[in-house]
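As practice, study what follows.
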Amino acid sequence: METDSRQTSGSDAGAFPGFEDLKKLIEKFQLPSVDIDALIDWQRRDMEALTEANRQASEGLKALVERRNEILRETLAEWQAAVKDATSTEAMSKRAEAAKQGMQKAMANFRELSEMEAQARNNA
């Protein structure tokens, strides 16, 4: 079985695994008027741009998940507080008001999460 020859020895060619191998392969064919270093540099920049886009997308999704979890914790705490108060005489009016406020907050949270998702997509 062939060993992995992704060892890097060039300056720009070694930025990502496999670029040195690509450079050797192109040199092997000795194509006239092909600037191998420019080709490798172009591929390296493409990989760096892709890596950065993925990093930004990952950060955006991470922020989205963290905010969603925070909203869930807050909502559960509010529902627990509402259930504790359910034994009082004015429980029905409190439940109705809590349900109304909960729905308004849920819609605001949904908008916020949608905006965060759109922002994450635009950044990527």
